Every structure is written in C-alpha cells, then in structure tokens.
Amino acid sequence: MEGSSYLVVRMGAMGDVIHTLPAVASLPKGHVTWVVDPKWAVLLEGNPYVGEVIPLNRKQWGSVSAAWSRLREKRFDVTIDFQGLIKSAIAARIGGGRIFGFAQPREAAAKLAYAVTCQPRHAHVVDQNLELARVAGATDARIEFPIPGGAAEGELPEDFVLACPFAGWPSKEWPLENYAALAAALERQTGLPLVLNAHPAAEASLRQLKGVRVHISSIKGLIDATRRARAVVGIDSGPLHLAAALGKPGVALFGPTDPARNGPYGGAIPVLRAPGAVTSYKRGPSIDDSMKRIGIGEVMEALEANAFSETIR
User: Fold this and answer.
1) Which of 299, 312, 306, 309 lies closest to 189 in space, CA to CA?
2) CA distance 223 to 180
3) Which of 84, 182, 206, 214 shows the smallest number of beta carbons within 10 Å?
4) What domains appear along the chain, each with residue ranges and CATH number?
C-alpha cells in the first residue's frame, strides 16, 4: 500500500542482499527500513528505495541491543522477512506490523512469527523474493539492482578479467591452482591478465599463485573492480551475483548448489557445471569433486564465446 512504512529483514550474506534488491525496489512508494548485517550495509548506500538502514551484528550484543531499541521505536505497517531464519524472524517480530514470510522458511520455527506466508512458484531466489514482495503488497515486479558506485582501491590493469576465488563454503570453490593455469591461458590467447580479488586475510594464499594479479580490497573496491573488468569468472558467491547484477559478461562455475535457484540472474553469465554434479548444498570443508571436474579449456571456451571473442588472437 502506497505511503506505508515497510520493514525489510535480510541481514546477509552478500549475494542474498543483492538478490533481495529487486523485491524491495518493487514495493509501493513508502518508507522502507532495512535490517542488515553491518558488513553488507555498503551494498545499500545511496539506494533510492531504502529510507533507513538498521545495522545488526548478532555476534555483538551492543549492536543487537541498539538495533532492537531502534526497531521498538518504529511503527511499521508491513514487515517482510526475506531470510527465513529464527534470528531474522525475531527481528521481524520486534519490528512489528503485519509480518510476511515464506511458507517454508530455511528454519521452520521462523514461520511462527508470520501472519501471512508465500509459497513461491519460481525457481530462482530473485523471483521468489519478488513473489513474497507481491504478497506483501507490491504490484510491479521491478527487476532493478541499484548497486552503489564503489571506490577505486589499489592498482588495476587497464583491461583485465576478474575472479574472486573464495566462497562462504569451500565446497563451492574451484581449485586455487586452476587460476594460475587460467591466467596463463588468458595471457596466451587474449593478452589479458587475470586479476584475483579477495579480502586482506586471503592475500598470502593468492600471492603464491604465479601469473595472476592480486587485488586486495573492501567491498567498495570490489564493486569498482567489477565495474571496470572486461569479464568475470565466478563461483556461487557474492562477487558473482554482484557481477550479474551489473550485467557483466563472463562464466560461472557451479557444483553442489543449484544454478536454477542460485545461478547468476539475468542470463548475461552462462553456467558451467560438470555432468553428474549433485545438488546437495553441503557446506563441506573441502572442494566438491564436481568443481574439480570443470576444466581450464571449458572455462576459456565459455569466456571466448561470451565475453571477448573479438580479442582472441
């Protein structure tokens, strides 16, 4: 309902916040407050559809207490829990208003907080979020990703391919040594360098790889680097979904997660997945065998077809 006050709960992680942006953009005109983990709040900077951001770091009691106090001060007409966890349902309950959530949330107990539920029909999480927003009053499915501009950090080549080799679960990663082989193939066939972006804690691991350029940055630096990259090589992680939201070409490497649900949205980035890969969503401590079966040659062929065929010598 236009003019209403909305509370959106989607604390993280990076890709999940990005996947929620179109749903929030589709809400009727009103005042939107978004509860998010402080680590990902940068993704909402300058967002024209979000009037206020409440940071909530559940690992810090001071942050939790401050967030709860701010939520209690507000008067929300509609609250939407896009996360479906007990922690997000608690934040939604504290915020009040009429609470909307998924009929089958990730943690079943979260459903107890919801007044109205949505059983999504679509496969991809972006479309599922749009369905939930419609149940909560949205009338226009606006596919819009208002990503902030980012900020330049460190040195980058003038023209390059970007990859972010780490994910929240090691089982979704591609073997690190493969990036060195990919860098050599890129240089040989296109003359373009491969830039690997990561957070400071991962710098030592990347410096051991030969032939790659290492770019250590914050999220703002990652956004800037993604905007400047010729193409991306991604895995199922936030940086891939950032690239998809920005419409960058490239290739996505998938293994134990389902690209129909979690793949790069919008069709600009094709997916490579080994035959026989099993969808498990298992958060294993080691790389899934299906990711190991994706070869360097396959990645290069996908990049040639999707990103820079005119550059091939």
Assistant:
1) 312
2) 23
3) 214
4) 5-135 (3.40.50.2000), 161-311 (3.40.50.2000)
pLDDT digits (tens, 9 = 90+) for 112-123: 999 999 999 999
Angle at alpha carbon of residue 118, lines to 54 and 59, rounded to 5°: 30
Say what percent of the chain tops pLDDT 70.
98
Calculate the alpha carbon distances from 304 to 147, 173, 197, 309 in Å.
27, 22, 21, 5
pLDDT tens, position by position, 16-33: 999 999 999 999 999 999
| Tokens read off for 121 | 């029909």
Alpha-carbon torsion, ordered 273, 229, 239, 141, to 10 deg: -90
Per residue in 236-273, pLDDT tens? 999 999 999 999 999 999 999 999 999 999 988 999 99
Neighbouring-strand partners of residue 101: 117
Q: Give residue 245's identity as a one-letter amino acid code.
A: A
* Residue 164, SS3 per DSSP: coil
Model confidence over 186-233: pLDDT tens digits? Answer: 999 999 999 999 999 999 999 999 999 999 999 999 999 999 999 999
H helices of the chain, in order, are 14-25, 61-73, 86-95, 125-135, 177-189, 203-207, 219-228, 238-245, 259-262, 289-292, 296-306
Instruction: Give the residue from 87, 178, 82 showing the smallest Cα distance to 138.
Output: 82
Distance separating alpha carbons of residues 140 and 126, to the nearest angstrom? 14
Radius of gyration of the chain (CA): 20
Categorize the per-residue pLDDT at 309 as very low, low, confident or very high, splitting at 50, 70 and 90.
Answer: low
Neighbours of 252 (CB within 10 A): 24
69 Cβ contact partners less than 8 Å away, ≥ 6 residues apart = none
